Amino acid sequence: MKIKPYQKIAFIYVVLASAWIYFSDGFVQSNFHGILEVTLVQHIKGWVYVLFTGALLYFLVKEDFESIEKANNALLKSYEDTMRGWINVMDFRHKETKDHTMRVTLLATEFAMLAGLRGEELKNVERGAMLHDVGKIGIPDEILIKPGALSAEEFEIMKQHPVIALELLGKIDFLKPCADIPHCHHEKWDGSGYPQGLRGEQIPFSARLFAVIDVWDALSFERVYKAAWPEQQVLDHLKSEAGRHFDPQVIALFFTHYSHLKATAHRTTTVPSSRLPIISAAQGA
Fold this sequence. Notes:
Elements: H1 5-31, H2 35-93, H3 97-114, H4 119-130, H5 141-144, H6 152-158, H7 161-169, H8 180-184, H9 205-220, H10 231-240, H11 248-256, H12 258-268, H13 281-284
Helix pairs in contact: 1-2, 3-4, 3-9, 3-12, 9-10
């Protein structure tokens, strides 16, 4: 039977602590005889015991925590590899997805950092952006890759992809915290979006950030159903939608940093999807 970490720590502690008490007591009895002398040595021995056992527990616990952390990192990597696998599935079905997903993931992460998000909030933005279209797995091909405008009925079906995304991610504890973007990135500031018709600050902040990035990318680059818009037309459209589609403060932040974000977007177009990065804890701190 394999010994569990806490059993190993307890066993080592009991053995070494017992050996310390036995041999140190024998040493004191053999070498010290006066009451004051023995009392002083016992005090010293007690403090040495505290320091010794403290150091022992520190190294034993540190070793096991490092092993647990290593195992958690391996598990996290497997989760992230699964996320990339989902993206690859979408790549096969939806020819535009690869570059689009790459750009919006890096841009959304960069934009979120500029907005002041750090740590787990930033990680959730990155993962949410990466999986923002995961719900399209449940959309039929004849709608998903249709070369042209969707009919009203087809659009109603397409509008289900955020709901499908929430159903997928909500069943995975690791991905629940990053579901805001996949579920809410089509909500609009004035309440006219979908799937819930959220309004204003009811929309999660990460989804408000991502919505600007997603629309900018969708308009700026060619799709199977449309040509790319001229840059100035895209920017004019984004400005006109402040207070309707977009959070006005988020739009203002976007334009403040537009040159930087635009340069970041164009640097990503040659990066292979297999190298789609996951930010480290240090970057997110």
